Amino acid sequence: MFGRGLFQLIFSTCLLGDALASVVNLASLKWTLTNANGTINVPSIGPPTQAHIDLLNAGLITEPLLGINDFTQRWIVDDNWTYTGDISPFLKSDAFKQSKKTLLVFYGIDTIANITIAGHPLAWVNNQFRQYVYDVSDLLASPRNNELVIELESAWKYGLNVTARDDTESFPTNVRTSDNYEYPGVRQWVRKVASDFGWDWGPAFVPSGVYKPAYFVTLTAPTGGKQTIGTPPISPGVDEVIKPSPVFIEESSIDIYKLGESFSVAPKEDADWIVNVTLGVQSSTDFRSSSLTLTLPELSISKTFNVSSVHASPNASSDGTNWVNAVWQIPDSVPKRWYPHNLGTPQLYNLSVTLDLKSSARTVDSVSFTTRTGFRTIQLVQSRYTDEQVRAGITPGDNWHFNINGKPFYALGTNIIPFDPFYARTTPESVRWVLESAVKSGQNMLRIWGGGTYQPSHPSVAGGVYDFYSVCDELGILAWSELIFSDSLYPINDFLLESIEPEVRQNVRRVNRHPSNAQWAGGNEIEGIITSAAPRLENGTHYLNEYVALFQDFLQPIVSSETSSVPYTDCSTTTGVLSLDPYELRLKNATPGEIYGNGGTPSHLPNTLTSLTFVYTERYNYDASVAFDYSTFPVTRFMNEFGFHSMPSFYSWEEVLTSPSDFSFNSTVVTSRDHHPPAGSLTFPNPNAAQGQAQMTSAVQIWLPTPVDFESNLNKTFTQWCYSTQIFQSMAMVAQVAWYRHGAGKGENNLGALVWQLNDIWQGVSWSSVEYSGRWKVLQYGLVGIFSPLTIYPFWTARNQTLEVLIISDRWESVRGTAQLTWLDWNGTALSTEKHEFEVPSLNNSVVLQRTGLGSILPEGRNETDVWMLMNVTAEVDAKTVTNEQYFTPTSLANANLVDPQISLTPNEDSGHLTFTLSAKGGVAAWTWMDHPAGTIGVFVDAQTGVPTNGFYLVPGLDRTLRFEMNEALSRVKNPSPDDFVVRSLWDNTHI
């Protein structure tokens, strides 16, 4: 459950035997967890762990995600917790006795802690996102006791103490921020996952612990040995043997870019590649000389570089770290390039790095590692559109889009939040499934939200616990990375800045090697907060200056000094820059009628002089009556956030609800897990949840048949409500994606749409498309269709009864194909059909139908409540046949005269296990939805094409055959019965 398979029992033999292991996992020690007054004293599993996990293992609490435990377990937040490890086996080991230097390495402490070792004070730490390495040789040489003690202070109480100081800057309370969750007012002062204090899609557990692996590293005298390790900073796996060595690679950075490329200089695509390798090295010995050998074995190329000498106590650094660097120049034509999966092949190479250290004429110690990386250029284009482009139809202003390997492309994707409230128990299998789900739905970019955490590279790198960037590299999906600042004004006190600088440097260095990384953004949504608030505040200029000081003047130079391969931008949603060299933000220096940055203005104001022209934001409109009113949709170069919330499925609720009475849309427990809008305090249940519940309710009532109260089967009522909120969510998000995608052929030249959000942190109301367990929501299947390389979509403007049907393409080449538009009634009778041949230019759209007035749109003599349109498109894309299907109803489905579809669900073993044929024996089954049983995780695919398919219109005479592809690693039920698969449609909202 806690993802410890890679870390438990590592090198346990080194503690008692004669082996001279150089790395000792602290999880192999005996640990205890105690609270402040000593009334709780329980065994701990050791790093990686958090207090809630150990209390759960000890039976003192139940699973934190059950019921209302996010409320009943608040006492854990208020207490201070101490981890005590018995280091006596280590002190008795030969590994320690024969070492010349001993390091204590923490890859992550959450968050405020005093550390004592062998009775000696060692350090006080206050940053969850930093790696800490301490030379403890002298302290262990004269131990006062045999304990490693980590005293964790409540982050909540620490935050209150900091904000109570006289020298702490207070921020205006009338500024719109997301600082109004359960534990308000402190997170700006604590370098910790912001959403740990609460957010509108998740709980507020404010966990504490040593949440990533930790190690003793012993360094020997030179032996002339050769050591092979994993990618540093290493976290060894169970089967990995690390020989004794005089050196430890504390950090590594592998930055691959074009010759001459920098933050302000765009890559020249035919220039040579630069492979810039930097290692941070701890040593027990002064070495006379050192060299780095870099090898790409698949390309049969290698080169050796003389680098800085390595010393036991470097003069250049007070932290005992030697920095060695090699810069390798490779011709452009030698490697193949890495591409996102929908644009090419995510080509990866093994890069081998060998550090040779000479201590005498005959003694050379070597440390080698091999890591996977790739060659690509990624550029955030922010230059001004040329006069020629404006004359060709582009709205004046600046570009804001990404180029991959020199070409603009359409970024299709979603946003990532933390995968679990407790990082230490996140598993590689669960994260891989979420990332695979993104790829299966056609996404090529994920945004790592700045209120969460820095995502790890791999379980074996810097105590990652699970795999993220390496999977993105492999699957071919770009990762928009953010520094961890979100939705708040931030102080610029020295004690914070001196902690933030190493935090940022360490994480940028670690991520550099990943070709999937697309950029570093300074934070989330803060630019819009400060620029809109500053004019209203008495001291507004001061707060704006502080924002510029942090995100323009402080963070940008740090990031750009550590990487030349990816861009930096100040904020997730931004008006862009006035200049890259020198780096100067645009903020409100805009020209009326021009478009800058990402986010956008409402679509009816693209060229109008109004204050709203300067407000760039995401779209979260919870008035469902305008859900499909395009005049309320932003016009923007790129949209990085937009969403609407929904319920998780009945199956997810079953995982956490403990009483039959809880299974109701507005039960106390269900509404307690709706944090939108947030409570703004520790009041429980959320007093504002009724607003969020009403928004979902209203959406269903306006646009879908409202589920009736099935008195004889209340669970069915609840199930249909959950399903219906998901249908509306999918309809609304698909409409927005279509709007932004069609903007690639409009004046805004939109080249990005990232839906909020992909994953869930628990089982509750949220904006996600994939539930906490990994179960797909309706939206996730909806994204499959609207993220298709070629999609057809009806743009219906009700106020003037205009229908435009567009073919939208994200291909780099022109695409030809055929569109078929068929009107049917709800009995499934085809009333009329028309075909259109089309050609869509690169990154553009083509209109195949444009009509105004229902009289000219509907089949003759038909009413809008009785008919609907089935739209299909077929084309050859990348030497493969691509099809896409969408639906148009000229009125709300709440008004449609639906007919009993009489759905038949038949197992089809001839086509494979867990394959089903669906037939409508009566009328059309709008939003036909298959559910897989509890305890199973997987995806339904079309049995012929293999494309994920669910949530479709099932037409009489047009059977569908679906196959359930199960993820066995995540499924508790390994051999589900076909009888446990069920099907529903909108007809079930109002009929037994």
Automatic annotation (TrEMBL):
Domain Beta-mannosidase Ig-fold: 898-989
Pathway as given in its UniProt record: Glycan metabolism; N-glycan degradation
Keywords: Glycoprotein, Glycosidase, Hydrolase, Secreted, Signal
Gene Ontology MF terms in the entry: beta-mannosidase activity
Uppermost EC category: hydrolase
Subcellular location per the Swiss-Prot or TrEMBL entry: Secreted
EC number of the protein: 3.2.1.25
Residue ranges occupied by any Glycoside hydrolase family 2 immunoglobulin-like beta-sandwich domain in the UniProt entry: 266-376
One GO cellular component term: extracellular region
Superkingdom in the source lineage: Eukaryota
GO BP of this protein: carbohydrate metabolic process; glycoprotein catabolic process
Main location: secreted
Signal peptide span: 1-21
Domain Mannosidase Ig/CBM-like span(s) in chain numbering: 802-875
Catalytic activity line of the entry: Hydrolysis of terminal, non-reducing beta-D-mannose residues in beta-D-mannosides
Ranges of residues in domain Beta-mannosidase-like galactose-binding: 31-212
Protein family according to the UniProt entry: Belongs to the glycosyl hydrolase 2 family. Beta-mannosidase A subfamily.
Record's subunit section: Homodimer.
Protein name, UniProt field: Beta-mannosidase A
Protein source organism: Leucocoprinus leucothites
